[in-house]
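Backbone-to-sequence.
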């Protein structure tokens, strides 16, 4: 996969924050060398977060986000501020833009306290340096108009971005050169036309990058595939929905896991989600469950999130529970009404946002589990699906 093809969830998310008319949008344009954001002398020109995937040397593939002013006013302004705060959930590096002619005020100080609390790397930059003679030696001053200081800003952002580089692998750290990995990818009514879903694509690429061999098959051909191999594969990875059928076909001697479990480890916190699976057995009539997905897609009659998962949960728990559903960027700040959060694998979310969602749940002591872990637990094969991960397996 080339840098230009890097999916959004794998890009470093660099977000620009600040008060209205601090020159955020002008600085974003100067920073990217593009007319990415609309600029105006009128306060509040940026009404919604503006995103742009691009290549930014020396950082590489990034997602640049320009946000509305966090000092916006009125009912509509409050919604814009809420959107700005939501961007923080997916931010890898925050750039706080301050009007150099005004200086840091209470709003900026509150923002700095917030990013520190969330552990987000940030840099404070004073824009409009061309309009003031007051500059302190230990601060970074730039002019979006003249371009002064923009190069230095890029270098500092690049340094912070390097600290956020994801060295984790989806599967490559579990295999050795020339190992054979069998991937089970059902093609049914929910599969996208003419292509594999993103977790499957990314897993295949990670296997190839590890100089290993990948064999892709469907459930119906799995037994024949295993028989055709001269030696047992290193492991089998299956789509979670086929977990039960696949487990009956794959001999116990061959390690078995799912794409969702791999992504729970890659994007989030596998231990937390394994612990969260236990809540499925303690549900009672009337309990509320949130089922959340990171992407927005066309719902079909057999949709896993809104149809299959609720049915499986009620059958397993024996309880008549209530379900709420969210998708895309929607995720409640307050989860206190829920007994459990069931989340997708998060392939369309970056690591920062997935971990934010997990943290939002755990801070309220609400169990959270992803699809793959939940399905393995409900099929009685969670222990087997975790044998590849000794540090997690030992907690069961």
């Amino acid at each position: 996969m080339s840098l230009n093809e890097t999916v959004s969830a794998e890009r470093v998310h660099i977000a620009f924050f600040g008060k209205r008319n601090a020159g955020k949008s002008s600085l974003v344009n100067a920073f990217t060398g593009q007319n990415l954001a609309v600029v105006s002398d009128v306060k509040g020109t940026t009404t919604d977060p503006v995103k742009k995937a691009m290549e930014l040397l020396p950082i590489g593939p990034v997602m640049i986000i320009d946000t509305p002013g966090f000092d916006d006013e009125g009912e509509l302004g409050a919604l814009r501020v809420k959107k700005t705060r939501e961007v923080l959930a997916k931010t890898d590096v925050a750039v706080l833009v301050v009007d150099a002619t005004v200086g840091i005020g209470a709003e900026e100080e509150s923002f700095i306290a917030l990013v520190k609390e969330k552990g987000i790397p940030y840099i404070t930059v004073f824009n409009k340096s061309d309009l003031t003679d007051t500059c302190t030696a230990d601060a970074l001053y730039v002019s979006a108009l003249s371009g002064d200081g923009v190069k230095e800003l890029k270098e500092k952002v690049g340094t912070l971005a390097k600290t956020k580089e994801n060295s984790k692998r989806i599967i490559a750290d579990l295999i050795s050169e020339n190992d054979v990995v069998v991937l089970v990818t059902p093609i049914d009514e929910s599969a996208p036309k003419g292509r594999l879903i993103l977790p499957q694509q990314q897993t295949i690429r990670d296997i190839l990058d590890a100089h290993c061999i990948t064999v892709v098959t469907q459930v119906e051909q799995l037994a024949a595939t295993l028989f055709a191999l001269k030696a047992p594969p290193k492991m089998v990875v299956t789509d979670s929905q086929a977990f039960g059928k696949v487990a009956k076909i794959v001999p116990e001697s061959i390690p078995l896991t799912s794409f969702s479990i791999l992504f729970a480890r890659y994007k989030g916190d596998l231990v937390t989600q394994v612990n969260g699976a236990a809540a499925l057995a303690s549900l009672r009539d009337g309990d509320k469950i949130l089922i959340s997905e990171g992407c927005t897609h066309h719902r079909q009659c057999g949709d896993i999130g809104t149809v299959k998962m609720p049915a499986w949960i009620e059958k397993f728990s024996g309880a008549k529970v209530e379900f709420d559903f969210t998708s895309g960027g929607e995720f409640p700040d307050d989860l206190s009404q829920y007994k459990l959060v069931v989340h997708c694998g998060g392939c369309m979310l970056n690591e920062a946002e997935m971990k934010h969602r997990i943290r939002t749940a755990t801070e309220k002591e609400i169990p959270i589990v992803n699809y793959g872990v939940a399905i393995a637990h409900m099929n009685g094969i969670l222990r087997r699906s975790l044998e590849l991960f000794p540090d997690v397996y030992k907690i069961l």
